Hints:
The chain has 256 residues and is α+β, with helices and mostly antiparallel strands.
Amino acid sequence: MKVASYNINGINTRLDILLRWLEESAPDVVCLQELKAPDDKFPKAAIEDAGYASLWHGQKSWNGVAILSRVGEPVETRRGLPDDPDATQSRYLEAAVCGVLVGCLYLPNGNPWPGPKFDYKLAWMDRLHAHAQTLLDSQVPAILIGDYNVIPTDEDVYKPERWAKDALFSPPAKEKFAELVSQGWTDALLAKNPDHPFTFWPYWRQSFERDAGIRIDHALLSPSLAPKLKAAGVERTPRGWEKTSDHAPVWVELAL
């Protein structure tokens, strides 16, 4: 089963991009972030025509996450984190698909740092840690995949000094991400790609063409799922399309 994550950066604005990618790549399960659309504007019909059932948790103009599946209806298990520090922001959606619990997440950006938005980022990560531990305690096969808005190490960024004042590269955020992984999760992309492939390139200064990117989209596998990891990677091609997202899709292949 191929599980992918794609920060689409506006699902209706870039619906043609999404549908083209779904046709060319044909992932079995897809987690989307930054829908930037309320629930009633989610393009369910177009996605069904592409062969996917869908769940979504939308929000007008900002945030929003969705789970698509072409291998059976995703069965929703959670909408939002327990005790979310701001439940008005649509950032987490969880569903069971083919015996795997799929958690789709869009972690807060946190800029400017320091400040209230950064405090919210850290609080949200604390709630994610607590829920992630609950999943581990249940021993269910689980994947937490999406845009984490955290650059874990110097190897995950082109010219680290240029991101030193950014919340994505802040020591507190990096420490919390490391703590999350140390619960027992496997960083699937890194496990299969020790060269730390980038997943995001800013629109400015031909960043993609120069490969001046960062790695902020991650897929974490629970101990019961990690042994089934066959491959993982970044699909760079869609990042080069016209009027595309600034993220590239990331994917993991599981032997279920």
